UniProtKB/TrEMBL annotation:
Leader sequence segment: 1-20
Designated name of the protein: YwmB family TATA-box binding protein
Keyword Signal in record: yes
Gene3D superfamilies the UniProt entry points to: YwmB-like (3.30.360.40)
Top-level taxonomy: Bacteria, Bacillati, Bacillota, Bacilli, Bacillales
Originating organism: Effusibacillus consociatus
């Protein structure tokens, strides 16, 4: 149980840092985040493996009871609709976690976790984490998953802070020039401009901004809503690619 609590807190910390600058809107009516991401991934010409949709949101600045967390989670699950959801509770001295988890189908894991904290020297806080993880080459459903998460957060009046990612691979080992060419195709497909990047012999990871999506974060005063990472997996002997929006928040 202590291990699960640590994992929940780690997820909150990592995604919270990623969204230190919140998701914003350009105010124009453009394509949705999931649609932009699908278009970008298609341009990579990689074989799809699955996708992630993660949400981290601050619910309030209150230390809630376990019963209050449970009631809130059940209300949200009326929209998220985890079938036969399993329940997990963690009771700590200064922290409670209430989690519902299960599968939409054999390929898709879904979880909803509310964590309330009253840590010494810090303001009380309750946060919401929603995760959808799909292991399938059918990634077209990512847009529906994003919208489902938004609707779920709206049930309790919370602003969603969503990160998405499509993962894939190539059966060949691709050199640094080839990796840069892949990223060039991806950026061109969604009219994106590079904001910052890391390039080495084993990894290319580039972040940018596409005007096609109305959602973005700001980093160092610049808009960002796309990240592409390509690296060689020596164990599997494959080149792997992650295409995320607004940034990739999973390990690579």
């Amino acid at each position: 149980m202590k291990k699960l609590a640590l994992v929940v807190l780690l997820i909150c910390a990592v995604i919270g840092v990623a969204y230190a600058s919140p998701v914003r809107s350009t105010g124009v009516k453009d394509i949705q985040m999931g649609e932009m991401l699908t278009r970008a991934f298609d341009a990579s010409q990689a074989q799809a493996e699955g996708y992630y949709v993660h949400n981290w949101s601050i619910v309030n600045q209150t230390f809630m009871t376990m019963d209050e967390l449970a009631q809130m989670a059940q209300k949200m699950n009326s929209v998220l609709q985890i079938p036969n959801a399993q329940e997990n509770k963690i009771n700590g001295e200064r922290q409670y976690v209430y989690q519902l988890y299960g599968r939409w189908d054999p390929s898709t894991e879904v979880s909803l976790a509310l964590t309330t904290m009253n840590l010494q020297g810090q303001q009380p806080q309750t946060v919401l984490v929603i995760k959808i993880e799909r292991d399938s080459n059918r990634v077209q459903d990512i847009t529906q998953s994003v919208e489902k998460v938004k609707s779920t957060a709206a049930q309790i009046g919370v602003s969603p802070q969503i990160s998405t990612c499509i993962k894939g691979f190539y059966n060949d080992r691709i050199d640094s020039m080839g990796r840069n060419q892949i990223i060039g195709r991806v950026f061109k497909a969604v009219n994106a401009n590079e904001v910052e990047g890391i390039r080495s012999d084993s990894l290319v990871s580039v972040s940018g901004y596409s005007p096609l999506s109305k959602e973005y974060i700001k980093t160092n005063g610049k808009r960002m809503n796309l990240q592409v990472a390509v690296h060689y997996d020596a164990f599997q002997k494959k080149t792997r690619i992650l295409v995320g929006s607004p940034i990739v928040t999973i390990e690579y």
